[in-house]
Structures are given as structure tokens and as C-alpha cells.
Automatic annotation (TrEMBL):
Residues 7-150 form the NADPH-dependent FMN reductase-like domain. This is NADPH-dependent FMN reductase-like domain-containing protein. It comes from Helicocarpus griseus UAMH5409. It comes from the Eukaryota. SUPFAM superfamilies: Flavoproteins. GO terms for molecular function: FMN binding; oxidoreductase activity. GO terms for cellular component: cytosol.
Length: 205
């Protein structure tokens, strides 16, 4: 029996309403055929489900698990979820020209769970989330993750002038126009990033 390697597609938006889960589902659907061929199981993980407060443990994450342990259920659950995956596709929003606070806070709970693992960064926003993508790349590389060189950036159709942006912000809905645009212009880039992840997955940490 073939053992499938687990990869998490992590939607990091915690706003209400939020369009992040719909974008993560879009990415999942684009990657599923390639993942099946590579014997990879894709799992959608929603950061909002873990209800993480601003880091509230009494130990430093770098000490876990060799020297200390988490005490709170939310910390243990988030740590275990990230540890069980061999790599990640992070689907991240850009807020006010940068990485969202929720995204950074979630990463600040982690060190050994993610170090040495491959990751693809897929950002989204008015113009694609380039600032958030670059900030996250820097953070992940300093933490020792293997960041895929291709980092797709998904801009809503017609930017600030289009209805999709307001549907995303106001209702948490992903417009069909943006989905069609991304499928046409970003689909190959999303697949390329995933192919790079698969190559990195084969390298030794």
C-alpha cells in the first residue's frame, strides 16, 4: 500500500467574514490532480478553527518539546496539527501592506514543528499581496523552512474598482470573475510552486 505524504493547505485569515477558506479551496482544487500523481494527501487547515490568542504560553516555543511543554489546549492542538504535516501551502491575506497579525502570531507558536519542511506561499489582496508574501518568505527562511521560489500572488479582478473585492471583504465571498482570472492566469504558477514543493520534499532537511 502506498503511503501518502500529508501536505497542509493553511488558510491563515481569522477575520469575520473571511474569504480565505474559499481561496484555499480554490488552490486545493487546482493542486489535487498533481498531488494525487505525487502520492500526496492535501489537507485544508483553517487557522480560525484554533482560536489562538496572542502568544500566551509561559515557555518559549524553541524549548518545545525537548526542554518544555505547552500547557494550553489551543497551543497543543496547533502544534500537533502543524507537526503532522510534511510540508505546507500557506494561503495568506495582505492587510495594510503587510502580513496579517493572525498569521504572524500563529507562526510565533512554532519552531521545531515546521523547521526544515518545504512551503509554498500563496498570497492574495487588492494587488496580490506581494508585501505579505515577502515578509512571510523572510520569516520562514529565517526559521529554517525551505521556501519554494515561486510565490503566486492573487489579485482580485479589477482591484479596488471591481465588485469582487467588496464581496470578499463584506461577505467573505469569492467572486466568479476572480476565480476565472486566477484559473486562466495563475493556475500554471500555482502548479509550478507545488512542483517546487514536491522537489524540496525529496531533499533531506
Amino acid at each position: 500500500m502506498t503511503v501518502l505524504r500529508p501536505i497542509a493547505i493553511v488558510a491563515t485569515s481569522t477575520r469575520t467574514p473571511r474569504v480565505g477558506p474559499s481561496i484555499a479551496a480554490f488552490v486545493h482544487d487546482k493542486l489535487q490532480p498533481a498531488a494525487a500523481k505525487a502520492n500526496i494527501a492535501l489537507h485544508q487547515v483553517h487557522l480560525s478553527d484554533f482560536k489562538l490568542p496572542i502568544y500566551d504560553e509561559s515557555v518559549i516555543p524553541a524549548m518545545v518539546p525537548e526542554q518544555a511543554s505547552f500547557s494550553h489546549p489551543h497551543s497543543k492542538a496547533w502544534s500537533a496539527e502543524m507537526k503532522r504535516h510534511d510540508g505546507y501551502v500557506f494561503v495568506v491575506p495582505e492587510y495594510n501592506y503587510g502580513m496579517s497579525g493572525g498569521t504572524k502570531n500563529a507562526i510565533d507558536y512554532l519552531v521545531h514543528e515546521i523547521r526544515g519542511k518545504p512551503v509554498v506561499i500563496v498570497s492574495y489582496g487588492v494587488v496580490g499581496g506581494s508585501f505579505a508574501s515577502e515578509q512571510l518568505r523572510h520569516t520562514f527562511e529565517k526559521l529554517g523552512l525551505k521556501v519554494a521560489g515561486t510565490r503566486p500572488q492573487l489579485a482580485f479582478e479589477n482591484g479596488r474598482e471591481g465588485p469582487d473585492l467588496f464581496a470578499a471583504m463584506g461577505k467573505g465571498e469569492l467572486g466568479e470573475g476572480s476565480k476565472e482570472l486566477w484559473g486562466r492566469e495563475k493556475g500554471d504558477e500555482i502548479l509550478k510552486g507545488f512542483e517546487e514543493l514536491v522537489e524540496l520534499l525529496g531533499e533531506k532537511a
